[in-house]
Amino acid sequence: MNDVLTIEHDEKVGDVLKKIRLDQGKTRQEIVNACNISLNTVALVENNKVIPSIPTLHEWCKALGYSSLCLKFHFESR
């Protein structure tokens, strides 16, 4: 199992999750089974239409072989 999946502030969550899934040769159905979510939800996330909840994101990362997740945010002051 890998350690930490890091998603940088300028990356789209869905793009990162989809790329890793495809690189690993996993199917959307495997993510559905691991996360107990619908196939439609996986498609919406991977197409950057919705952002998964933190618990779902954690399960998704585990399904991809990561033990934890790091989301990096960028804040600009006005």
Describe this structure in words.
With 78 residues, this protein is α+β, with helices and mostly antiparallel strands. The chain has four helices and two strands; from the N terminus they run βααααβ. Strands 1-2 form a two-stranded parallel ribbon. The longest helix is centred in the N-terminal third of the chain and has 11 residues. It is globular and about 45 Å long. It starts with a strand and ends in a 7-residue tail after the last strand. The model has no long low-confidence stretch (mean pLDDT 88).
List the helices and strands and how they pair.
Blueprint: E1 2-7, H1 13-23, H2 28-35, H3 39-46, H4 54-63, E2 66-71
Parallel strand pairs: 1-2
Task: Give a nutshell description of this structure.
This protein is an alpha+beta fold and 78 residues long.
Offer a few descriptive terms.
single chain; 78 residues; alpha+beta
Note the overall shape: globular
Count of helical regions: 4
Beta-strand content: 15-25%
Low-confidence stretches: none
Quote the average pLDDT: 88
Total count of strands: 2
Radius of gyration: 12 Å
For the termini, the CA-CA separation is 41 Å
Order of helical and strand elements: EHHHHE
Helix content: 40-55%
Spatial order of the strands forming the largest sheet:
1-2
Major sheet summary line: 2 strands, parallel
The structural class is: alpha+beta
